[in-house]
Amino acid sequence: MTSDLRVSLPGLELKNPIMPASGCFGFGQEYGRYYDLNLLGAIIIKAATKEPRLGNATPRVAETPSGMLNAIGLQNPGIEAIMAEKLPWLAECYPDLPIIANVADNTEADYVAVCERISQAPNVHAIELNISCPNVAHGGLEFGTSPEAAATLTKACVAVSQVPVYVKLSPNVTDIRPIAKAVEAAGAAGFSLINTLVGMRIDPKTRQPILANQTGGLSGPAIKPVAIRLVHQVRSISNLPIIGMGGVATAGDALELMAAGANAVAVGTANFSEPFACPNIIKALPDELAKYDLHDFKTFAVNQEVL
């Protein structure tokens, strides 16, 4: 029997539930040299801010057992360059590929301006509102750790956006559920879970942090159990769609997140060690479903009712 991998979410009709996570795939141009990006369910493009950003000082990436630390700091060419160059390239080369635009910035006014501008792009089907970056001094966790601040920002961004807004929440909080409830009440169309966990490495020779930023965001297989827990917790209090991410490298990882309550899955760090991670997972999904006598995610979703 042929498997049906389609997933329907607000603003997003996906041929399959797999997409690269923001910050781990650029704007698709580099990976497009190696495989047809039309294989993907969607792309979450690199963060967009109102002004161009160079990011944090180097070194800003360090390997860890079962993962990596990064303190890139939202490096991007700014909203106008993305509107003029990156999104038109994606529209020309991949006209049917849904794009999710990751939006970040320092202030509410700048978040709102970027959401309004980027949601006008015809190939942007949804916004991922990034209120969880651990590597910037302003914005990011400043909004993502307070239910009130998260709700106020979400409401303002939803009001000006022409596409559904998915809010990317942080794992670096005591309890994610009050924040999830607050952004749902503020009009979010769904959640994106999770961003990286704050970590640090020290060079024994210098006794100094390896990263110039001192701390960075931990990603990769080490955080998969945390992602599963937080997807499960948010699913227990909300029926909004969830794009789950955190340590996904195989089709089995993706199904585990979906069993916890995710409706779609983003792949992050695995893209760096295996550029074909996303198409490999997509190819393996039918056999992974067949292990449980399933052929689509509608029947797989039934299992979520027991959570």
If strands are numbered along the chain, what order do they take across the biggest sheet? 3-16-15-10-9-8-7-4
Span between termini: 28 Å
The helix-and-strand class reads alpha/beta
Major sheet, described briefly? 8 strands, parallel
Q: Low-confidence segments, ≥5 residues, pLDDT <50?
A: none
Overall 3D shape: globular
- Look at the structure and give the mean pLDDT: 94
Please give the radius of gyration in angstroms: 18 Å
Count helical runs: 10
Count the E strands. Answer: 16
- Helix fraction, binned, reads 25-40%
Strand content: 15-25%
From N to C, what is the helix and strand string? EEEEEEHEHEHHEHEEEEEHEHEHHH
Quick summary:
By secondary structure, the chain is of the alpha/beta class. The protein has helices at 79-93, 108-118, 141-144, 147-160, 177-185, 224-235, 251-260, 270-273, 277-290, 297-302; strands spanning 7-9, 12-14, 18-20, 43-48, 61-64, 67-70, 99-103, 124-130, 165-168, 190-193, 197-199, 202-203, 208-209, 216-219, 242-245, 264-267.
